[in-house]
């Protein structure tokens, strides 16, 4: 009798499932974190004939004649594709589509738990921009929105821009815009706490990847006084060689003060530091900032500066971690943003809709504002409804709502 071939995924050194399941993280993930359930019962032949053939044919024929009916008689208008190529997963980097799946499942879970939005994780085995765009365009008829996730910069900018041009449904790269919305909300409240407006502030952003660029852009849109953006080579400015198109645009639109050195040099006298780079800043650099300074050290799992150290000099400190106050967490934004966009069947998510989401999120804090509370908790059940309503209203005002 021939031996049974070994599983292609197994190796002599691989730990057993039983061993892995001793770790609660593995035990929780066994079998995946999401599933699909039916919304109607199939109890007898009559139910079956309505849910499937022959009854389904009537609905198919009606949609063929009036394609927009797909939004009323299928799940399309309430489902988002969570799409990744696995090239920039959390702090893990380029780990590929299979290893990215637990994160995309987690994202789908958060969509449902916090926004009541159904989401399907889709990890693509391609990294070429043309291939990514073409694949998502071909998948798009099955979805009411596209959430791009963990696609490395600078490709993520082109992928999103091209999909926004080609599709008439919301396309949103959460690593960019989710972070930006929450950071803006927290900064508005931090400014209010210190008796200033955004227009009074000079900010330095460390990081010119997806989130760094998006945060810088939304701060500009919201009226920040001045902002300088740094990458690994220092402050981006118009006199610097070797800038790509995204950084050239940043150089044109930022840094009115004309900084050209390092991040730490630009921090002298600055009001705000936003870290999105995975690098570090010294205590001396934070100490050199203006009185009433605001430090958002958002790199995970290791902030650019330890929060307790930053708090010796800064009035407000935020991180991306859940074990410190003022967590800048994307889950505060994307469920409500998509819920609002889907509710009005928006054709896009505009810049105004993002700012409206940030304003609504900031307003949830209200009179409870404090140095350790400039942004609400993800478990504050007021958050998603507030963001949803603001985004839906702004979509109508911007003329991108279809109902």
What order do the helices and strands come in, and which of them pair?
Elements: H1 17-20, H2 24-29, H3 45-51, H4 55-65, H5 70-73, E1 79-84, H6 96-115, E2 118-123, H7 129-139, E3 145-148, H8 155-166, E4 171-173, H9 174-193, E5 202-206, H10 210-222, E6 226-231, E7 234-235, H11 245-253, H12 263-267, E8 272-275, H13 283-287, E9 294-297, H14 307-310, E10 316-319, H15 334-343, H16 351-365, H17 383-398
Parallel strand pairs: 1-2, 1-3, 3-4, 5-6, 5-8, 8-9, 9-10
Antiparallel strand pairs: 6-7
General shape: globular
Mean pLDDT figure = 94
Unreliable stretches: 1-8
Structural class: alpha/beta
| Order of helical and strand elements | HHHHHEHEHEHEHEHEEHHEHEHEHHH
The tally of helices reads 17
The tally of strands reads 10
Give, in spatial order, the strands making up the sheet with the most strands: 7-6-5-8-9-10
Distance between the termini: 66 Å
Kindly provide the radius of gyration, computed on alpha-carbon positions and rounded to a whole number of angstroms: 23 Å
How much helical structure, as a percent, in the residues?
40-55%
Which strand-content bin applies to the residues? 5-15%
Note the main sheet. 6 strands, mixed
């Amino acid at each position: 009798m021939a031996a049974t071939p070994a599983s292609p995924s197994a190796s002599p050194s691989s730990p057993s499932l039983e061993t892995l399941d001793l770790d609660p993280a593995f035990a929780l993930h066994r079998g995946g974190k999401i599933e699909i359930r039916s919304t109607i019962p199939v109890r007898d032949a009559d139910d079956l004939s309505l849910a499937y053939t022959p009854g389904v044919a009537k609905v198919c024929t009606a949609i063929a004649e009036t394609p927009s009916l797909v939004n009323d008689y299928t799940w399309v208008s309430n489902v988002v594709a969570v799409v990744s190529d696995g090239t920039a997963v959390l702090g893990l980097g380029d780990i590929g589509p299979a290893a990215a799946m637990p994160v995309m499942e987690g994202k789908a879970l958060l969509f449902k738990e916090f926004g009541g939005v159904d989401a399907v994780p889709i990890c693509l085995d391609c990294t070429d921009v043309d291939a990514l765009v073409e694949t998502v365009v071909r998948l798009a008829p099955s979805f009411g929105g596209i959430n791009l996730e963990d696609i490395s910069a600078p490709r993520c900018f082109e992928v999103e821009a091209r999909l926004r041009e080609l599709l008439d449904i919301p396309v949103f790269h959460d690593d960019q815009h989710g972070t930006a919305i929450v950071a803006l909300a927290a900064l508005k409240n931090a400014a209010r706490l210190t008796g200033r407006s955004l227009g009074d502030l000079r900010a330095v952003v460390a990081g010119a990847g997806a989130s760094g660029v998006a945060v810088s852009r939304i701060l500009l849109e919201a009226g920040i006084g001045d902002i300088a953006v740094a990458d690994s080579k220092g402050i981006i400015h118009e006199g610097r060689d070797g800038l790509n198109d995204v950084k050239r645009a940043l150089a044109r639109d930022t840094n009115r003060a004309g900084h050209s050195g390092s991040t730490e040099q630009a921090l002298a006298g600055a009001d705000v530091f936003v870290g999105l780079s995975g690098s570090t800043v010294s205590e001396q650099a934070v100490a050199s900032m203006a009185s009433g300074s605001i430090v958002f050290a958002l790199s995970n799992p290791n902030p650019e500066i330890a929060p307790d150290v930053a708090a010796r000099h800064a009035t407000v400190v935020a991180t991306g971690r859940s074990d410190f106050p003022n967590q800048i967490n994307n889950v505060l934004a994307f469920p409500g943003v998509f819920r609002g966009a889907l509710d009005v069947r928006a054709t896009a998510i505009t810049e105004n809709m993002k700012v409206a989401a940030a304003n609504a999120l900031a307003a949830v804090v209200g009179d409870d504002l404090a140095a350790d509370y400039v942004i609400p908790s993800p478990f504050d059940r007021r958050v998603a409804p507030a963001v949803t309503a603001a985004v839906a209203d702004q979509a109508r005002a911007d003329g991108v709502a279809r109902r």
